[in-house]
Amino acid sequence: MQLSIFGQISRFRSTTIARTRSLAVTGALVCVCLPAFAATPNDDQADFARKLQDAVPAGVRLVVAEQNDQFSVPWKISGLGEHAPYNINFANFNGGPAVLEALVAGAVDVGFIGEAPLPIALAAGVKDLKVIAAIANPGSPGNIFLVAQPGSNIKNATDLAGKSIAYPPGTGRHMILSGILHSAGLDIRKDIRSVALAGSEVAPTFASRSVDAAIVLGQQLFRLGSPPIIEDGTGHNWGLNVLVTRQSVLDDPAKVQALADLTRRAVQVLNWQQRNAEQWINASYVKQQGLTYEQGKYLYDKSGLGTYYPIENRLSQVYQQIADGLYETGALQKKVTIAPFLDARFNDIVASQNRLDGIVPKQLENNQHAVISAQSAPTPASASAAAAAITGVKSDTTPVALAQPTRVAP
User: Fold this and answer.
1) pLDDT tens digit sequence for 177-221
2) Which N-terminal residues, if any, form the signal peptide (predicted)?
3) Hey, what domains does the chain have and what are their CATH numbers?
């Protein structure tokens, strides 16, 4: 049964915050609770980990939503999830909209999603959401590929005019597809035959030759027999993935302490993946996804992993740019302001763990990414189709375009 976010909006509980730090983001001033989470200059890895671990009360339970086991696998094989001071359970979902459905329904405490689902949920009326950590990988194709049927004579994106293309609406794949099409002078709303499907249905539909093209993930590319690649996601996204929770979870002091420890471990796990590429490729791409080592290495080398960034002005600007692009191209019925839904209380944890691991995030820039201006965008159509991926409310409206980056050949 699909959940409707409209019927699951949680009421906020007001809290008195004794200690706050102000974060100026895109014109808004957000005050967030900030316990002493930073490592001191004299702390080593063990000291910092012990401080956060010892602060978690006994008996806390966290349910973490993920996609395709991309967090639980490195959490386990790295050994960095051992002796967590809380009972942790992982729930696997197919796509960010499904993660948000579970989060809003209270089935999970925190979850990982990409860059598109949150603005769509906010526009649909959901308010009880907070981003507490963020990974960015600007310039990466994100292991997302636009492929065509073998022998179809589709050589580039321009050839897709009038063709049927399968994609999951309301997701990063939707955003990347619309960007690729727009850069080729095509509008996803009127110049192609949109086939909006659940994420798990895209590859099988393409394999059955029911569509001319599809936007697929890296592992699906190889399982489909390596069909011709028209373009990949390079320059069409920020590689933004966020850790999101409910405000009601943040109103629970015990769970806040558990989330602090979880955030530190999440940063450390991602940094471990960077340093242990071969082990990660074997564990994820080979063992988990059933690819060969060579295929996994190709995907790893092509996209990389990204880095955790503090939730500061620049990251807020990037996320707002993404949201504005969604609105200006008709995916959202109203503008949304991202800043109130960014919670910076764990910034010191992110910065401290990166420092202890010797990780320096690269400059958060993506010169090939741009947003359609209001002047160049087509008149927005109904946003119901994109929102339906999260709300469960069906619509007869053709899915709409999302964002326009500069065209980049794969």
Assistant:
1) 988 898 899 988 889 999 999 889 999 999 999 999 999 999 999
2) 1-38
3) 5-137+239-356 (3.40.190.10), 144-236+370-391 (3.40.190.10)
